[in-house]
Amino acid sequence: MRNLLGGKGANLAEMAALGLPVPPGFTITTEACAAFLADGGLDLSGDVARQAREALQDIEEQMGRRFGSATDPLLVSVRSGAPASMPGMMDTVLNLGLNGTTVEGLARASGSDRFAWDSYRRFIQMYCGVVLDLDHGDFEDILDEIKDEEGISEDSGLTAASLKEVVARFRHHAHSRLHEPFPEDPFEQLWGAVRAVFRSWNNRRAVDYRRIHGIPDTPGTAVNVQAMVFGNMGEDCATGVAFTRNPDTGTRTPFGEYLANAQGEDVVAGLRTPWPIASADDGTSLEERMPDAWAELVSVMDRLEQHFRDMQDVEFTIERHRLFMLQTRNAKRSVQAALKVAVDMATEGLITRREALMRIDPRDLDRLLHPVPDPCAPRQVIARGLPGSPGAASGMAVFHADDAQALGAEGRAVILVRPETSPEDIHGMHAARGILTRHGGQTSHAALVARGMGRPCVTGAGGIRVDPAKDLLVTGSVTIRKGDIITIDGSTGEVIAGEIPTRQPEQSGEFEIFMAWADEARTLGVRANAETPADAARAREFGADGIGLCRTEHMFFEDGRIIAMREMIMAEDVEGRRRPLERILPMQRADLVELFRTMAGLPVTVRLLDPPLHEFLPTGLRELEELARHTGTDVEHVRLRAASLRELNPMLGHRGCRLGISHPEIYEMQVRAILEAALEAERAEGEPVHLEIMVPLVATGRELAVIRQSIDAVAAAVAAEAGERPHYQVGTMIELPRAALQAGDIARSADFFSFGTNDLTQTVFGISRDDSGRFIERYLEEDIFAEDPFVTLDTEGVGEFVALASTRGRCTKSDLGLGICGEHGGDPASIAFCHRTGLDYVSCSPYRIPIARLAAAQAAIQEQDSS
Amino acid sequence: MRNLLGGKGANLAEMAALGLPVPPGFTITTEACAAFLADGGLDLSGDVARQAREALQDIEEQMGRRFGSATDPLLVSVRSGAPASMPGMMDTVLNLGLNGTTVEGLARASGSDRFAWDSYRRFIQMYCGVVLDLDHGDFEDILDEIKDEEGISEDSGLTAASLKEVVARFRHHAHSRLHEPFPEDPFEQLWGAVRAVFRSWNNRRAVDYRRIHGIPDTPGTAVNVQAMVFGNMGEDCATGVAFTRNPDTGTRTPFGEYLANAQGEDVVAGLRTPWPIASADDGTSLEERMPDAWAELVSVMDRLEQHFRDMQDVEFTIERHRLFMLQTRNAKRSVQAALKVAVDMATEGLITRREALMRIDPRDLDRLLHPVPDPCAPRQVIARGLPGSPGAASGMAVFHADDAQALGAEGRAVILVRPETSPEDIHGMHAARGILTRHGGQTSHAALVARGMGRPCVTGAGGIRVDPAKDLLVTGSVTIRKGDIITIDGSTGEVIAGEIPTRQPEQSGEFEIFMAWADEARTLGVRANAETPADAARAREFGADGIGLCRTEHMFFEDGRIIAMREMIMAEDVEGRRRPLERILPMQRADLVELFRTMAGLPVTVRLLDPPLHEFLPTGLRELEELARHTGTDVEHVRLRAASLRELNPMLGHRGCRLGISHPEIYEMQVRAILEAALEAERAEGEPVHLEIMVPLVATGRELAVIRQSIDAVAAAVAAEAGERPHYQVGTMIELPRAALQAGDIARSADFFSFGTNDLTQTVFGISRDDSGRFIERYLEEDIFAEDPFVTLDTEGVGEFVALASTRGRCTKSDLGLGICGEHGGDPASIAFCHRTGLDYVSCSPYRIPIARLAAAQAAIQEQDSS
Fold this sequence. Notes:
The first copy, chain A, is an alpha/beta fold. An 8-stranded mixed sheet of chain A has the order 13-23-22-15-16-17-18-14.
């Protein structure tokens, strides 16, 4: 009933039903929230108030306390709880029910004046902030004022008498600001809090969070009203947050933090550095300090995990040695942990392998694969903190969320550095490559949010001083100013000056097991887009089934080749072009021999020259001069030639097979290099090369027919010279709408199609990817696009072309090979589409291979489940 | 049987069957040609030779002369004749059968030694050129040599004795060049000539001509072997070319030219200026000089026209007062003539109105509509010639076909000036805007070819001297050098120095009648693309049914507006943009009021801003400074802003409805201006404005829905202010492949679609029109594209999208309006496609309106005929 009760409410109800120690309470539904907001957000309906009063009576009975009682008052917490988890995004009020009368009752019942008045002042402060919209800082100022007057520095130094004075001044401040007294009637307090939680659904940070995380705007949040239990009634009290397994590593031991004599907010806010719950052998752990409560907590967590069949993240409070569970939910975890938990749980028999595969968002694997700082590289570690969220990141230090957003929007890598983070910083955290905070532990806001976003994060770096006003951080002798480059390693907690080299992380044993399960489940092939032998080797290591796209032009940009390429372009006629092409041939062939040998036994798709020629020409004066010298002309001549090749819309220009047809000698050289390389690699490896030659930018069957004829002619010549027939297939990119329509005709000359969904998306939408930044952001904001079509394949438009071309192509040739080699080949949603559409494989960058393998497995599982 | 016998052969056979006086002959079929060429083009098959010998015996019997006879020899002509007319493109041999023996027989039979030896020397010269591939000039040199020796200047001064010497030297020259004697055996001569004609099918000028005119390369040419009759046997002989009606004006009087005592080649070659056939009251006409032959000719032409039901173009020879018809064919004619002939013939009852409509190629109407030199403009007429092909053209004078081609390819307007033209000049004539020759009449090669190509042409401008070697022409005191601008008026024969202003030609009465017939026949609407009231008025005058595309941004480029537009673009925020937009609003409104009033009662489709903003920014320093001054910034700032707006692929950039969504204030201003203008025009004219507001570059239904909502909101505001509801429809361009696919969804917010086939062609093919010049020419040459897809709608690709979007759109909304507003809207083949696909209208530039009306009529007629 998550949708009606919210995640927290549903889990509380479920925990209560399991007989776990949950403070009694009730939940006001998301439906009531939707009705309230739809109705203008002014007053709660009579029904809601009546039912709430009735439910409150039940709580009173269960707790043996009465709401508003002058002797032993019932206090309640009022918390939001939406269907989707939005940690810290909305508002909470604690200790509700306190007033001039009930505070005395609480003092009596708890035996502590100080506790009662401290609770009261906390309540006023919180209520004023959350419900009455007064500035939190003003109350801190009053508190500081009184501490100054009394000459004390810590809150804990305040006596009951001083706290009474605090309360008096708080109430006076509220009265003068609001022009009416702070509410005394507990029910008035309750209705005010419920309304405020409802309204908080639409505050900016909640709206931002939903947008970033793709959470729908309806129905709204539920409100959980629960009897207060106190972790701050003395040293036999505590409050904490715990995970059933380690959320960073996945290790099967409870993990968490707690504070003795504190309320839950103190842990999450990160203002006090908490202690670990499990024994750290220094006497600080909950296990050591409250062994009975600890034993009960461990047992409760075990039951929860068995019940929910997933790792849980709980909040608990211990009131005078008695354990209360305040919340449970499926725990957020690092991807390393998620992987280990999934594999462990499947091994434990708690879930199936298929369930384990469905538990990981393929996109998260990305974080396992990207380089980490080279541990051997010299580094200037300027501070150490807690490993808040794994991974490493370098970037310019910035000290405000807005700066992070502004520079991030310009494509700059930034590290957001804050004393601590709060929900107001969400947009900056999203824009940053990494987050560094001075305060807070591994369950602080910064760590939680960063882990959710997949940003590396270091928290609790106590050795640094962060001064946002001056845009700097100081650590011992080092001062880092805004714009200085720093590196953080969220896996170790290190903060390093400057940028340092990175290397490939090693994979855990669970990773190998998990990916092997994925390979068993999937039917879709996964190939890599790779040109260099290094990339090809990495692709094999990551489990690629072959190379789906080797862009031959990348080889032309290397030193010693580019000048020959440029000479070719400068030539006036075919003969002038053939000479430099003959110099390029052996280089291209040598590169390909190495690539083919690396991929021995697997298919390799080699694409012929695609970009327009002007992309190869230089713009710098030195290079222009060099080219002029090489070609025996002058700089002006070279400039003119470059200008004559320039295009208004190069994306739609003289490139791809159009060049192959107007300058046949280029493709002839390339085809010869490819075929000779294949023969050489076969001889060397003793294994056949599964070669696929791919022609780009075909729009008509005739184009491909003409080029195929020329490929076959070169192949015949090579065979005659070598005394050996090279084996190859010829296919084409389907990357133009017309090609998709004409797929039936094109398939006559094609052995395979590879959908070039980058260009296909550009032409189908009429949007230049390079120029789309100006409006796509707006389109996403206004929901005109649900997704960026360059990230996730547009199934309605581009997808219809892919499906149509597949059908028409296979109608002509039933065994036509079908793949996709655009960026979408590494996007899980797009991979699911490719699976459903019956393609043979996707091809993506080497780092995305594991993502694609898992996404393909999930697509296969989903298909089986829905059939 | 044109395909088997060729046009000439089939017509000769048909004339013979009609009992008309045709010299006996036979035709060797195109099949024999194809077989001969396929077989390597070396020897005629035994079958062909045997059948030819038999047919020759028939001729001998009919003529009472024998082939090779020493007393009264039969001579024959050997002429090519392909299924499609290719005037002057292939080879002909006359007087075949002459040798040392038969020349004496001919002398005896004709009673003239001189005639016989002149015929013999002509035969040798022609045979050596056509069959033996010797240089024609060498023979001219020998002739000049002998004339020098004898001290005479004209060919006619040569005596029989000198001609014998000419023949001796010709034969000697041929023998020494060929290392074998000139063939004496008449059959050997015949086989040589037939083989040469067959081979001439593949000579360069024939291949060029076929490519330019879209004539297929198969099957080949037929060969017509016919008994020679002589127009040059004395003053009672003549030869000529005649049309059954005037080919320039269409007037129903025979028209033609002849030469007395001459062979046909003399007329066509244009070396002697011929006399008119019909009486010119100066005693030179055929009518006056040979009244009997004239009467018979007129009667024969009348029968031919009745029989072929079309105007004919005949060749005739009069041998000693006896008329022989050598050829008849449907006559080439100017479009003025074609129009008059079609209307007259339908009025005469010879053909139906529908046939009349099918007789005109709609593209030819173009020539009736384009401006002619303003007759009132001052002009320096430097020469007068004959009106060879109607229309006027200005351009740089060039004196070689190759120069014309080279400069034409650069987009330069050139006039090709030659002493006379020959088939070797075809490529230059095609590249030129007009042709001027010193020699030749109205049936000369230059005039015939120019008329076929629709190029203005002035021939026979005897007052000029053309010196190709020096690249100049001299006329009295004026010298025109290569590159100087001249104007020719092919309707009057004037040659004018420099360029002169032009004005709209007046239309003949037949034009009005013909277009009215077209309107009766067509079902497709024809609208105009027009922005200015002047264009709109012209469109109405040309018979437009409304405006299908008014591009509002064109109004922004005018003085006083562009600066406001630029200020708007420079503004940093919405408010900064609103101020200049408010200044633009009344100007846009005023323009539109005028446009709506001009089009009162007819639909007007107004498109909202389409191009990217950077197109409006200046590049010149002075304008940059002005803009900086206006906006209170500096030039550097303006430059930076312009640079920030620049796009890599502007065609696929931030434009169209993308701007409308990111800068809603622009469309709001435009919509307000449009609606207010419509209300004002309605009040002024008392007639409703049929307003259609069109949103460009839509790719998703959501885009249009968002903008439609904003249009409706502005309309509600305008209605509230004006106290009157403006009436309008909202629709969109379908110009992106995705829009075509999503047409069903888009139609939910659209009242009409207008296919923007320019952009649709660009995105469907992935070809930038502006950059396609580099390879489309090559694609056409290599037959990869059958047509330039930017000229004729690609029915396979782009057309499938148009059809698909029409179906899907009308599936959502059955009364959805459908039109097309790309350049294709004026292309006849594309119009036929639009008719078949069920569109409501096409929209094209005003000058193309009549073309579109006729093409639409033809499409309707063709559909009815085929159903």
